[in-house]
Protein backbone atom coordinates (compact mmCIF):
# COMPACT_ATOMS: atom_id res chain seq x y z
CA UNK A 1 0.00 0.00 0.00
CA UNK A 2 1.07 3.59 -0.58
CA UNK A 3 0.42 5.32 2.73
CA UNK A 4 0.77 9.00 3.53
CA UNK A 5 1.46 9.83 7.18
CA UNK A 6 0.95 13.49 8.08
CA UNK A 7 2.63 14.74 11.25
CA UNK A 8 5.40 12.20 10.71
CA UNK A 9 7.98 14.36 12.51
CA UNK A 10 5.76 14.15 15.59
CA UNK A 11 5.49 11.71 18.46
CA UNK A 12 2.75 9.38 17.19
CA UNK A 13 3.38 10.05 13.49
CA UNK A 14 7.04 9.06 13.76
CA UNK A 15 6.11 5.71 15.30
CA UNK A 16 3.35 5.09 12.77
CA UNK A 17 5.59 5.90 9.77
CA UNK A 18 8.28 3.61 11.18
CA UNK A 19 5.82 0.72 11.72
CA UNK A 20 4.22 1.09 8.27
CA UNK A 21 7.58 1.14 6.51
CA UNK A 22 8.69 -1.83 8.63
CA UNK A 23 5.58 -3.72 7.45
CA UNK A 24 6.68 -3.17 3.83
CA UNK A 25 4.37 -0.30 2.84
CA UNK A 26 5.52 2.59 0.68
CA UNK A 27 5.37 5.57 3.07
CA UNK A 28 5.20 9.25 2.20
CA UNK A 29 5.97 11.14 5.41
CA UNK A 30 4.53 14.67 5.47
CA UNK A 31 5.19 17.40 8.02
CA UNK A 32 6.02 21.06 8.48
CA UNK A 33 8.44 20.76 11.40
CA UNK A 34 8.43 24.53 11.81
CA UNK A 35 4.76 24.27 12.89
CA UNK A 36 5.66 22.09 15.88
CA UNK A 37 5.67 23.98 19.22
CA UNK A 38 9.17 22.51 19.66
CA UNK A 39 10.64 22.98 16.16
CA UNK A 40 14.22 21.93 16.94
CA UNK A 41 13.41 18.42 18.27
CA UNK A 42 10.82 18.15 15.47
CA UNK A 43 13.51 18.91 12.87
CA UNK A 44 15.79 16.22 14.35
CA UNK A 45 12.91 13.71 14.40
CA UNK A 46 12.06 14.70 10.82
CA UNK A 47 15.60 13.91 9.66
CA UNK A 48 15.40 10.51 11.39
CA UNK A 49 12.06 9.64 9.78
CA UNK A 50 13.31 10.80 6.36
CA UNK A 51 16.27 8.42 6.70
CA UNK A 52 14.13 5.33 7.33
CA UNK A 53 14.21 2.72 4.54
CA UNK A 54 10.91 2.76 2.65
CA UNK A 55 10.08 6.36 3.66
CA UNK A 56 10.07 9.42 1.42
CA UNK A 57 9.79 12.76 3.20
CA UNK A 58 7.79 15.69 1.85
CA UNK A 59 7.71 19.01 3.68
CA UNK A 60 4.22 20.53 3.35
CA UNK A 61 2.27 22.92 5.53
CA UNK A 62 -1.23 21.44 5.30
CA UNK A 63 -2.82 24.80 6.08
CA UNK A 64 -1.36 26.60 3.05
CA UNK A 65 0.53 24.38 0.60
CA UNK A 66 -0.72 22.46 -2.42
CA UNK A 67 -1.84 19.01 -1.25
CA UNK A 68 -2.26 17.07 -4.52
CA UNK A 69 0.77 14.88 -3.75
CA UNK A 70 -0.45 14.29 -0.20
CA UNK A 71 -3.84 13.05 -1.40
CA UNK A 72 -2.34 10.62 -3.95
CA UNK A 73 -2.35 7.53 -1.76
CA UNK A 74 -4.26 4.38 -0.89
CA UNK A 75 -4.49 5.54 2.73
CA UNK A 76 -3.79 8.86 4.44
CA UNK A 77 -3.10 8.66 8.18
CA UNK A 78 -3.65 12.22 9.33
CA UNK A 79 -1.73 12.86 12.56
CA UNK A 80 -0.49 16.40 11.88
CA UNK A 81 -1.91 19.07 14.12
CA UNK A 82 -1.46 21.22 17.18
CA UNK A 83 -2.05 18.98 20.22
CA UNK A 84 -2.51 19.97 23.86
CA UNK A 85 -5.27 21.41 26.03
CA UNK A 86 -3.03 23.75 28.07
CA UNK A 87 -1.32 25.45 25.12
CA UNK A 88 -4.61 26.03 23.27
CA UNK A 89 -5.72 28.88 25.53
CA UNK A 90 -4.83 32.49 24.72
CA UNK A 91 -2.52 32.79 21.75
CA UNK A 92 -2.61 29.01 21.18
CA UNK A 93 -6.24 29.10 20.04
CA UNK A 94 -5.32 30.39 16.58
CA UNK A 95 -2.71 27.64 16.12
CA UNK A 96 -5.26 24.96 17.13
CA UNK A 97 -7.74 26.34 14.61
CA UNK A 98 -5.13 26.64 11.87
CA UNK A 99 -3.25 23.37 12.28
CA UNK A 100 -6.19 21.21 13.39
CA UNK A 101 -9.29 22.59 11.67
CA UNK A 102 -8.00 24.42 8.58
CA UNK A 103 -5.30 21.81 7.89
CA UNK A 104 -7.81 18.95 8.14
CA UNK A 105 -10.40 20.76 6.01
CA UNK A 106 -7.82 21.31 3.24
CA UNK A 107 -6.52 17.75 3.43
CA UNK A 108 -10.02 16.23 3.23
CA UNK A 109 -10.88 18.52 0.33
CA UNK A 110 -7.75 17.44 -1.57
CA UNK A 111 -8.60 13.75 -0.96
CA UNK A 112 -12.23 14.23 -2.02
CA UNK A 113 -11.09 15.99 -5.21
CA UNK A 114 -9.43 12.78 -6.50
CA UNK A 115 -11.36 10.64 -9.00
CA UNK A 116 -13.70 8.33 -7.02
CA UNK A 117 -11.70 5.13 -7.60
CA UNK A 118 -8.45 6.84 -6.57
CA UNK A 119 -9.71 8.45 -3.35
CA UNK A 120 -7.73 7.35 -0.32
CA UNK A 121 -9.15 6.00 2.90
CA UNK A 122 -8.41 8.68 5.55
CA UNK A 123 -7.67 7.95 9.21
CA UNK A 124 -8.07 11.14 11.25
CA UNK A 125 -6.61 11.74 14.73
CA UNK A 126 -8.99 13.05 17.35
CA UNK A 127 -8.79 13.09 21.13
CA UNK A 128 -10.49 11.87 24.29
CA UNK A 129 -10.76 15.57 25.22
CA UNK A 130 -13.87 15.84 23.00
CA UNK A 131 -15.84 14.10 25.79
CA UNK A 132 -15.03 16.70 28.45
CA UNK A 133 -15.74 15.60 32.02
CA UNK A 134 -18.55 13.25 31.21
CA UNK A 135 -19.10 11.38 34.48
CA UNK A 136 -17.63 8.49 36.38
CA UNK A 137 -17.84 5.77 33.76
CA UNK A 138 -16.15 4.76 30.52
CA UNK A 139 -16.93 7.06 27.57
CA UNK A 140 -18.58 5.43 24.58
CA UNK A 141 -18.25 6.89 21.13
CA UNK A 142 -21.94 7.84 20.94
CA UNK A 143 -21.82 9.85 24.19
CA UNK A 144 -22.56 13.54 23.78
CA UNK A 145 -19.43 15.64 23.23
CA UNK A 146 -18.59 18.40 25.69
CA UNK A 147 -15.31 20.09 24.72
CA UNK A 148 -13.84 22.18 27.55
CA UNK A 149 -10.96 23.91 25.77
CA UNK A 150 -10.11 25.46 22.39
CA UNK A 151 -8.09 22.30 21.61
CA UNK A 152 -11.03 19.99 22.34
CA UNK A 153 -13.37 22.26 20.37
CA UNK A 154 -10.98 22.14 17.40
CA UNK A 155 -11.06 18.33 17.51
CA UNK A 156 -14.89 18.32 17.62
CA UNK A 157 -14.76 20.41 14.45
CA UNK A 158 -12.17 18.06 12.91
CA UNK A 159 -14.56 15.17 13.60
CA UNK A 160 -17.47 17.07 12.08
CA UNK A 161 -15.41 17.66 8.92
CA UNK A 162 -14.51 13.96 8.75
CA UNK A 163 -18.22 13.10 9.12
CA UNK A 164 -19.21 15.50 6.32
CA UNK A 165 -16.49 14.11 4.06
CA UNK A 166 -17.82 10.59 4.74
CA UNK A 167 -21.32 11.69 3.73
CA UNK A 168 -19.83 12.89 0.44
CA UNK A 169 -18.20 9.56 -0.27
CA UNK A 170 -14.75 9.75 1.35
CA UNK A 171 -13.91 6.73 3.52
CA UNK A 172 -12.92 8.49 6.73
CA UNK A 173 -12.44 7.05 10.20
CA UNK A 174 -11.80 9.06 13.37
CA UNK A 175 -9.54 7.68 16.10
CA UNK A 176 -10.00 9.24 19.55
CA UNK A 177 -6.61 8.81 21.19
CA UNK A 178 -6.36 8.80 25.00
CA UNK A 179 -3.19 10.24 26.71
CA UNK A 180 -0.49 8.55 24.67
CA UNK A 181 2.91 7.92 26.25
CA UNK A 182 6.12 6.00 25.52
CA UNK A 183 9.46 6.67 23.81
CA UNK A 184 9.63 10.04 21.98
CA UNK A 185 6.69 11.47 23.92
CA UNK A 186 6.21 15.22 23.41
CA UNK A 187 8.18 17.41 25.86
CA UNK A 188 5.01 19.19 27.07
CA UNK A 189 3.34 15.94 28.19
CA UNK A 190 3.14 14.83 31.82
CA UNK A 191 5.33 11.72 31.86
CA UNK A 192 8.02 13.41 29.78
CA UNK A 193 8.15 16.31 32.24
CA UNK A 194 8.06 14.00 35.28
CA UNK A 195 10.83 11.71 34.05
CA UNK A 196 13.12 14.56 33.02
CA UNK A 197 12.58 16.24 36.41
CA UNK A 198 13.23 13.01 38.32
CA UNK A 199 16.41 12.29 36.32
CA UNK A 200 17.61 15.84 37.05
CA UNK A 201 16.78 15.46 40.76
CA UNK A 202 14.16 18.25 40.54
CA UNK A 203 10.64 18.14 42.04
CA UNK A 204 8.02 16.73 39.68
CA UNK A 205 5.77 19.50 38.29
CA UNK A 206 2.15 18.36 38.72
CA UNK A 207 -0.83 20.44 37.56
CA UNK A 208 -3.46 20.44 40.32
CA UNK A 209 -3.59 17.83 43.07
CA UNK A 210 -2.68 14.75 41.03
CA UNK A 211 -6.13 13.21 41.44
CA UNK A 212 -7.03 13.44 37.76
CA UNK A 213 -7.18 10.03 36.10
CA UNK A 214 -6.35 9.07 32.57
CA UNK A 215 -6.63 6.07 30.28
CA UNK A 216 -2.86 6.26 29.68
CA UNK A 217 -2.14 4.37 26.45
CA UNK A 218 1.26 3.19 25.28
CA UNK A 219 2.26 4.37 21.81
CA UNK A 220 2.93 0.76 20.70
CA UNK A 221 -0.76 -0.01 21.30
CA UNK A 222 -1.77 3.23 19.58
CA UNK A 223 0.29 2.29 16.53
CA UNK A 224 -1.37 -1.15 16.40
CA UNK A 225 -4.85 0.43 16.48
CA UNK A 226 -3.89 2.99 13.84
CA UNK A 227 -2.47 0.37 11.48
CA UNK A 228 -5.59 -1.76 11.95
CA UNK A 229 -7.78 1.25 11.08
CA UNK A 230 -5.60 1.99 8.04
CA UNK A 231 -6.03 -1.58 6.77
CA UNK A 232 -9.82 -1.96 7.24
CA UNK A 233 -12.79 -0.62 5.33
CA UNK A 234 -14.79 0.63 8.33
CA UNK A 235 -18.23 2.26 8.33
CA UNK A 236 -17.50 5.70 6.77
CA UNK A 237 -17.12 8.49 9.34
CA UNK A 238 -17.10 6.15 12.35
CA UNK A 239 -15.30 7.31 15.52
CA UNK A 240 -13.35 4.76 17.56
CA UNK A 241 -11.82 5.15 21.02
CA UNK A 242 -8.14 4.22 21.19
CA UNK A 243 -7.47 4.06 24.90
CA UNK A 244 -6.44 1.75 27.71
CA UNK A 245 -9.51 0.36 29.49
CA UNK A 246 -8.23 1.11 33.01
CA UNK A 247 -7.77 4.74 34.03
CA UNK A 248 -4.98 5.51 36.51
CA UNK A 249 -4.69 8.61 38.72
CA UNK A 250 -1.69 10.84 38.04
CA UNK A 251 -0.55 10.31 41.63
CA UNK A 252 -0.61 6.53 41.23
CA UNK A 253 1.27 6.82 37.92
CA UNK A 254 3.94 8.91 39.69
CA UNK A 255 4.30 6.18 42.30
CA UNK A 256 4.86 3.61 39.57
CA UNK A 257 7.26 5.89 37.72
CA UNK A 258 9.42 6.72 40.75
CA UNK A 259 9.36 3.01 41.67
CA UNK A 260 10.79 2.09 38.26
CA UNK A 261 13.36 4.89 38.56
CA UNK A 262 14.21 3.85 42.12
CA UNK A 263 13.94 7.42 43.44
CA UNK A 264 11.83 9.27 46.01
CA UNK A 265 10.59 12.38 44.27
CA UNK A 266 9.16 15.58 45.66
CA UNK A 267 6.07 17.01 43.97
CA UNK A 268 5.76 20.67 42.99
CA UNK A 269 2.10 21.56 42.61
CA UNK A 270 1.23 23.94 39.79
CA UNK A 271 -2.09 25.62 39.02
CA UNK A 272 -4.65 23.25 37.49
CA UNK A 273 -5.16 23.56 33.74
CA UNK A 274 -8.50 25.01 32.62
CA UNK A 275 -10.50 22.56 30.54
CA UNK A 276 -8.50 19.51 31.65
CA UNK A 277 -11.04 16.73 32.32
CA UNK A 278 -11.06 15.14 35.79
CA UNK A 279 -11.19 11.71 34.22
CA UNK A 280 -10.71 10.17 30.80
CA UNK A 281 -11.84 6.57 30.54
CA UNK A 282 -12.10 4.71 27.26
CA UNK A 283 -14.87 2.27 26.54
CA UNK A 284 -13.09 -0.16 24.24
CA UNK A 285 -16.01 -2.20 22.88
CA UNK A 286 -16.09 -0.59 19.45
CA UNK A 287 -12.32 -0.84 18.96
CA UNK A 288 -12.52 -4.55 19.82
CA UNK A 289 -15.43 -5.14 17.44
CA UNK A 290 -14.21 -3.08 14.46
CA UNK A 291 -10.44 -3.32 14.77
CA UNK A 292 -9.98 -6.49 16.83
CA UNK A 293 -7.86 -4.25 19.05
CA UNK A 294 -7.35 -3.62 22.72
CA UNK A 295 -4.53 -1.94 24.62
CA UNK A 296 -2.32 -4.56 26.22
CA UNK A 297 0.68 -2.68 27.65
CA UNK A 298 0.53 -2.40 31.46
CA UNK A 299 1.41 1.10 32.70
CA UNK A 300 4.44 -0.05 34.71
CA UNK A 301 5.96 -1.77 31.64
CA UNK A 302 5.19 1.18 29.40
CA UNK A 303 6.74 3.63 31.83
CA UNK A 304 9.87 1.49 32.06
CA UNK A 305 10.03 1.68 28.28
CA UNK A 306 9.73 5.47 28.24
CA UNK A 307 12.29 5.87 31.05
CA UNK A 308 14.75 3.74 29.08
CA UNK A 309 14.30 6.11 26.13
CA UNK A 310 14.98 9.21 28.27
CA UNK A 311 18.10 7.52 29.66
CA UNK A 312 19.31 6.58 26.18
CA UNK A 313 18.93 10.20 25.03
CA UNK A 314 21.01 11.38 27.98
CA UNK A 315 23.66 8.74 27.28
CA UNK A 316 23.86 9.93 23.65
CA UNK A 317 24.25 13.55 24.77
CA UNK A 318 27.11 12.56 27.10
CA UNK A 319 28.77 10.56 24.31
CA UNK A 320 28.47 13.48 21.84
CA UNK A 321 29.33 16.21 24.36
N1 LIG B 1 -0.15 12.49 22.11
C1 LIG B 1 -1.35 12.30 22.63
O1 LIG B 1 -1.52 11.88 23.79
C2 LIG B 1 -2.59 12.60 21.82
C3 LIG B 1 -3.84 12.38 22.40
C4 LIG B 1 -4.98 12.66 21.67
C5 LIG B 1 -4.89 13.09 20.36
N2 LIG B 1 -3.66 13.30 19.81
C6 LIG B 1 -3.60 13.78 18.41
O2 LIG B 1 -2.73 12.93 17.68
C7 LIG B 1 -2.03 13.69 16.69
C8 LIG B 1 -0.52 13.51 16.88
O3 LIG B 1 -0.17 13.94 18.19
P1 LIG B 1 1.34 13.98 18.68
O4 LIG B 1 1.33 13.86 20.15
O5 LIG B 1 2.14 13.03 17.85
O6 LIG B 1 1.72 15.49 18.30
P2 LIG B 1 3.11 16.11 17.77
O7 LIG B 1 3.05 17.57 18.05
O8 LIG B 1 4.27 15.35 18.29
O9 LIG B 1 3.00 15.87 16.20
C9 LIG B 1 2.23 16.68 15.37
C10 LIG B 1 3.04 17.01 14.13
O10 LIG B 1 2.19 17.77 13.25
C11 LIG B 1 3.02 18.71 12.58
N3 LIG B 1 2.19 19.81 12.09
C12 LIG B 1 1.52 20.73 12.82
N4 LIG B 1 0.88 21.58 12.02
C13 LIG B 1 1.14 21.19 10.75
C14 LIG B 1 0.77 21.69 9.47
N5 LIG B 1 0.00 22.79 9.34
N6 LIG B 1 1.20 21.03 8.37
C15 LIG B 1 2.00 19.94 8.48
N7 LIG B 1 2.39 19.43 9.67
C16 LIG B 1 1.97 20.05 10.79
C17 LIG B 1 4.03 19.16 13.64
O11 LIG B 1 5.19 19.71 13.05
C18 LIG B 1 4.28 17.87 14.40
O12 LIG B 1 5.44 17.20 13.92
C19 LIG B 1 -2.50 15.13 16.86
O13 LIG B 1 -3.56 15.36 15.96
C20 LIG B 1 -3.02 15.17 18.28
O14 LIG B 1 -3.98 16.18 18.48
C21 LIG B 1 -2.51 13.05 20.51
From TrEMBL:
<feature type="domain" description="NAD-dependent epimerase/dehydratase">
    <location>
        <begin position="3"/>
        <end position="243"/>
    </location>
</feature>
<dbReference type="Pfam" id="PF01370">
    <property type="entry name" value="Epimerase"/>
</dbReference>
<dbReference type="InterPro" id="IPR036291">
    <property type="entry name" value="NAD(P)-bd_dom_sf"/>
</dbReference>
<keyword id="KW-0413">Isomerase</keyword>
<feature type="region of interest" description="Disordered">
    <location>
        <begin position="129"/>
        <end position="151"/>
    </location>
</feature>
<dbReference type="InterPro" id="IPR001509">
    <property type="entry name" value="Epimerase_deHydtase"/>
</dbReference>
<protein>
    <submittedName>
        <fullName>UDP-glucose epimerase YtcB</fullName>
        <ecNumber>5.1.3.2</ecNumber>
    </submittedName>
</protein>
<comment type="similarity">
    <text>Belongs to the NAD(P)-dependent epimerase/dehydratase family.</text>
</comment>
<dbReference type="GO" id="GO:0003978">
    <property type="term" value="F:UDP-glucose 4-epimerase activity"/>
</dbReference>
Amino acid sequence: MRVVVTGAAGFIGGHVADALAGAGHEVLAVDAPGRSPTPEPARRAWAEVAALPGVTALERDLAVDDLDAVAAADVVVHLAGRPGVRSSWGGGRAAAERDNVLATARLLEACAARPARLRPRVVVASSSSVYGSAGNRPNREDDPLDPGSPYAASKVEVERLAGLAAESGLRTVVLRYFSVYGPRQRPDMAFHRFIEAALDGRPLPVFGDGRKSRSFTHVRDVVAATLAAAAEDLPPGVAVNVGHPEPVAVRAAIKLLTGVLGVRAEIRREAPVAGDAALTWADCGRAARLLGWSATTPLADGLADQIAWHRSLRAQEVAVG
